Amino acid sequence: MEEKFKSGFVSLVGRTNVGKSTLLNRLIGEKVAIATSKPQTTRTAIKAIVNGDNYQIIITDTPGIHKPKTKLSKTMIDTAFKMFSEVDAIIFLIEATSENIGMGDSRILEKIKESNRPCILVVNKIDLIKKEKLLKIIELYSKEYNFSAIVPISAEKDIGIDELIKEILNLLPEGPKYYAEDEYTDQTSRQLAEEIIREKALKFLNDEVPHGIYVEVEKFSFRKTSKKEDIYDIEAYIYCLRESHKGIIIGKGGNKLKQIASYAREDIEKMLGTKVNLKVWVKVKEDWQENDNIVNKFKLK
Asked: Do 253 and 139 sit in the same domain of this protein?
């Protein structure tokens, strides 16, 4: 008997830095969400498409839940919670290393209860703890909500991913293929390039700078070189909040900016499968986190 095709929409939610982007990239086998050790990495609701022989799962990686301090932060959190009413299921990602349910996780639990949607509790980073501690954290969260399933994983080590997909499919209805089989994200190449540049900035900059930056690609064009080789010309700006930050991003003799651009170019070339001519500049835009024209780009479409 032929297996019926299942498809549906899932929201991935959790506090900042619990490994949501790493999990998303692991599920689809492609890099669509930037993953760093610094919090509040994801800003937009990125859709990733997980394709199987008899299923298609559309997962949205929402911005990490944190205490909002700017209009941008508030928009990011509103986006994360707005997703709950529009999906078939929720994946709530927590860290196995947690000792208790903190304020951020408590707030997420409240919103999950309000949504009345099926929810899978996913306990990440199990490779860092002993089994006794894992059982304690599972027991703690089980008292708070009747989860459809609880799945221990390590996104970093690729442990428990198949089991998670199985549990997601248990919650999805029969449905059509919403995207072609070779699609794995709703992000454009331009958007992915912006995120790659921001990821490299997050990687190489001091802690006080990264979350005050915003990357915008102003030119993204394809051409043939004089030797008839394919190449993309990409020009991007890194916007920062202060003049002092601009100096840090550029670095002595421009070394820091060159490092960011060089590593970004390598990843963009891998993504596009062709050579890239990347130019990156830095500008100060003090109010960008409160600027409606920019903040609106992070709203759920």
From this structure: no
